[in-house]
Amino acid sequence: MFASHADKLTFAHGIGGAKDLPVSPELAIAGAVAALTVSFTVLAVAWRNPRYDEATSGRPAPSWLSAVVDSAAWRVGLRVLGFVVFLYAAMAAVLGKDLLTNPFFGMYYVWWWVGLVPASFLLGPVWKAISPVRTINLAFARLSGSDPDEGVFTYPERLGHWPAAVGLFAFVWMELVYPFSTELGPVRLWSAVYVAVMLIGGALFGSTFYERADPFEVYSSLVGKMSVFGRRGQQLVLRSPLANLDTVVVRPGLVAVVAVLFGSTAFDSFKDSSPWVRFVQSTDQSTYLLNNLALLVFCVGVGLVFSLGCVLTGIGDDLRHRELPNRFAHSVVPIVVGYVVAHYLTYLVEVGQQTLIQASDPFSDGSNYLGTADLTVNYGLSYHPTFLATTKVLAVVLGHVLGVVAAHDRAVRVLPKRHQLTGQLPLLVAMVAFTVGGLYLLFAA
Predict the structure, then answer these.
(1) pLDDT tens by residue, 32-73
(2) Residue environment code for 61-78, b if the CB has 16+ CB neighbours within 10 A, otherwise e
(3) How far apart are CA 113 and CA 268, in angstroms?
(4) Do 28 and 393 touch, CB atoms closer than 8 A?
(5) pLDDT tens, 256-279?
(6) What residues form the membrane-spanning segments (predicted)?
(7) C-alpha angle 174/212/321, rounded to 5°?
(8) Signed CA dihedral, 127, 298, 33, 418: sign only
(9) pLDDT score for 37
(10) Strand pairing of 235-238 and 59-60?
């Protein structure tokens, strides 16, 4: 991926490693483990009953805000905005030159993939509101006189979010492993396949397909549960992020989704770490093969560690054991958000600005269509390494603490009384392992 330089873009997602993090790694890891342990202890003493209830949590949003958000003009405006950006990116992809200065790369890897997280965190499920594939499906339905929410078939419940997990893995594979991820042809093809699959799925299964199988809508909707905006029925309400997070619908494949999101971010740090680079250079095996295996191991490993932490609760019959990982998977969402902030903050801010500058010249011919070509990138974050280091460590630690709180509230609701505390210990151990591993990678990359 890109590193931010005005004259040249190099594709490297790394967070810069210890040279950018003037904080003792031992102190950061010890502090994080202590924070998790203290948080769990406090929760065990003071949080004996579930506090989040979708039917009662939150208060109605101001009437003026509800009127704006629920208006047809607002919904149409967002659809138009999303579709205009989509058409502009498609124009750069189809007619632009195969150069790293083509803004399509930044729109694809930075604005779309990374930018989706802060946008959803602040505003809710943004992709659902602006998705161009939903807009195209809606237009086809209007032209044919059909209902865009209804498809030819009923979406199989057993599929759940598994297609979204596969789609997310396909994206991170393209981004992190595929050796030609900075060439226009493969990225353009990936995008075309995504649009085609989404349109076919929408035609067959209606809007349910997007809610459960669109990798970007599922991702955006999960992160959007960390915002303060939610719904009680059709009413817009303001909730605490954790109360909103508790409303995540439990479906098959939810663990797979969060495992891919978390595992791929961890792998992105790991592949630039000194131990992995030395290992790859010392072996005769193909680097491409090793990176493929490592990405798969990270994603599957996260899912297995989390699932194991959930099922080792001794609660009774096997059916309940199998249900627990998906029922607790929402608690990984704050951890994912924390790692995205820690890993991609500089990348999003600096390369995001660079993409806006390049967007004025989609054909690399010196044009300035948007009037942004003469802007310069502000590298303020990179010039303040202590602030950057503190922000990254705090993001990881806070994400895990919020994850522990979310898991505890779910535990006191679904676990038998005698297992509400002891049953959480394996999951706490798993989260401590995630914290230690994540901070190690943060410093080692």
Answers:
(1) 888 888 888 888 878 878 888 877 788 999 999 999 999 999
(2) beeeeeeebeeeeeeeeb
(3) 14
(4) yes
(5) 999 999 999 999 989 888 889 889
(6) 27-47, 76-96, 108-127, 162-181, 187-210, 248-267, 293-316, 328-346, 387-405, 425-443
(7) 100
(8) positive
(9) 85
(10) antiparallel
Alpha-carbon gap, residue 8 to 5, rounded angstroms: 5
d(CA 162, CA 88): 31
Helix, strand or coil, per DSSP, at residue 70: coil
Give the separation between CA 166 and CA 162, rounded to whole angstroms: 6
Q: Which residue has the tokens 């997070």?
A: 245
* Residue 10 β-bridge partners: 3
For 335-347, b/e burial (b = at least 16 CB within 10 A) is bbbbbbbbbbbbb
* Residue 128 near residue 138, CB atoms below 8 Å: no
Rounded Cα–Cα distance for residues 97 and 363 (Å):
6
- Alpha-carbon distance of 373 to 35, in angstroms, equals 46
Say how far apart CA 253 and CA 271 lie, in whole Å. 26
Question: What residues are paired with 196 via a beta bridge?
Answer: none
Name residue 202's amino acid.
G
* Contact between 98 and 185 (Cβ < 8 Å): yes
pLDDT score of 9? 42
Could you give the angle at the alpha carbon of 197 between the alpha carbons of 196 and 199, nearest 5°? 65
**In whole angstroms, how far apart are CA 356 and each of 61, 109, 123, 353, 392?**
33, 13, 21, 5, 25
Residue ranges covered by each domain of the chain: 17-444
Measure the CA angle with vertex 344, ends 343 and 349; round to 5°: 145
pLDDT at 6 over 60: no
The closest alpha carbon to 256, from 344, 177, 325, belongs to 325
Q: Which two tokens stand for residue 265?
A: 């971010």
**Single-letter amino acid, residue 223:** V
Which of 222, 202, 203 shows the shortest CA–CA distance to 213? 202
55: phi then psi, degrees, rounded to nearest 5: -75, -20
Query: Tokens for 43?
Result: 């929760």
Instruction: Tell me the residue type at 266.
Output: A
Tell me how far apart the alpha carbons of residues 373 and 357 are, in angstroms, rounded to a whole number: 5
